[in-house]
Protein: DUF445 domain-containing protein
Organism: Nocardioides szechwanensis
Amino acid sequence: MDWLQEWAAQVDWVSFVTIPVFTGVIGWLINWSGLVMLFSPVRFHGVSVPGMREFATLLPRKLQEVPGLLQGGIGWQGIIPARAAKMGSIAVDKAIAKLGTPAEFYQQLEPDRIAEHIVTTFRPEIPQLVDEVMRREHPRLWLDLPLSVREAVVERVQAQLPSVVNRVTTEIGIHIDQLLDPKIMVIDHFQENPALVVRIFRDFGQRELNLMVRFGFIFGFLLGIPVALADSIAHQWWLLPVLGVIVGWVTNALGMWLIFEPPEPRKVFGVTVHGLFLRRQDQAAEVYARIIADDVITLERIGDFLLDGPRGDRTRQMLATALRPAIDQAAGPARGAVRVAVGAHRFDTIRDSVATEAVGHTMTPFKDPVFSARQAEKIRDLVARRTKELSPRDFVEMMRAAIREDEWMLYAHGAIMGLGGGFLHLWIFGVGG
């Protein structure tokens, strides 16, 4: 043991002891600032640089992924909000596609209840709608009709409303797979609202994220012990900065591993290890379901997508086709005579105009906040139930998708901070602590 006593006598113990303390503090700072890099800012902050967009295309692909470069600027956007659309896409592929088809989502909304609500909401608006169309399309005929006849036309349209609305909601249900695309809805909404992706992590994972920061100190401190031993033996000025790079990289890698791996419980040296996020998949499912049901796949957004989305023209045409028979029947027994009196073309124009005007009204209840909130409970239950049923591997992929390709930035950030910590300790205490 003479060599041990000789080594101990030569060691500068103040310098030696401070190395693990330094690496521990640096490890804490690495994981704390890494979380800042992950989530903030939600929108890109930086400056535009002329020619940067063109220059960025010449850089290695990994560097092109740094937020802002391909947009022609120098700055930063949180990794997760910067990849919001990508996370939305993978979330659909890995989870929402398994949660249910568009038809299942639609049936969960109880089309019969929607139909009842449409009838209740739309019925009082029919007199004004019919009056506006008739005054526009054939004012002389409409004004010449006795008031009782005009009221009879309106009453017939109102009488047709329940059966017509049921036909409308049934038609939507039959063609919903062609009319509604949850993937586009999710991707577009996440891209427009990147803060939602941050909420998914923050709302259920803040406790685990805080634990990861604290573990940064523990990992850094433990890794600092062999660094101190190596420094005390080798007495090389470059050793602390080089080992600091390794410690910084490994600390961040361990932090990410702590959150996401392993996806299923596993024994390591007799200790059960399990990804922190995975331990609370059921709670995460409830949070995820609330955000999806309240902010992403809502009844209002479904209505907007059906009418104004990429396939809105098809929806409008289908609804107008379903509504036309009600206008045909509104004239009652006099339909043939009215058609002759106003002309077949004019009659068809009036019928089509009323049907077209009515399309928007049939979707108005989708925008009713009280009704939408009630129906959101159905979507929330479906999403929560199916998310809990996801395999741990699929759940991890859904949550990690937004950062997987950009994790190297976090590791590089850790390595740079470790390098700086090594130089700082070298500057304060010198070589051979």
